[in-house]
Design brief:
It comes from Halorubrum lipolyticum DSM 21995. InterPro entries: DUF8149 (IPR058462). This is DUF8149 domain-containing protein. Pfam families: DUF8149 (PF26476). The chain is of the alpha+beta class and about 70 residues long. The protein has one domain. The protein is about 40% helix and about 20% strand. It is built from 2 helices and 3 strands; from the N terminus they run ββαβα. It has a 3-stranded antiparallel beta sheet with strand order 2-1-3. A hairpin with a 4-residue loop joins strand 1 and strand 2. The radius of gyration is 15 Å and the shape is elongated.
C-alpha cells in the first residue's frame, strides 16, 4: 500500500463504529464487515457526508448546477 493513497471513512450506524481504510480496500472492507456482522445486508457504508460531497463535485464538474 502506498503512503500517498487516500483513506476513506467508513461508518456503521448499527455497530456505532467508524474507521478509515485505504481507497483500494473500501469495497473489500465493506463487504467483509457487512457479511460478518449483518448477514450481507448493506449497513456499513462510506461516510454519507463524503458521498454527498463527491456527488456535488461530480455534478459541478458535469455542469449540472449551471443555470439553463
Amino acid at each position: 500500500m502506498s503512503t500517498d493513497e487516500p483513506s476513506v471513512p467508513i461508518v456503521c450506524t448499527e455497530c456505532e463504529t467508524e474507521t478509515s481504510v485505504p481507497l483500494s480496500d473500501v469495497a473489500d472492507a465493506l463487504t467483509r464487515h457487512n457479511d460478518g456482522k449483518h448477514d450481507g445486508e448493506e449497513i456499513a457504508e462510506v461516510d454519507p457526508a463524503l458521498k454527498d460531497r463527491l456527488a456535488d463535485l461530480v455534478a459541478e464538474d458535469l455542469g449540472l448546477f449551471d443555470e439553463a
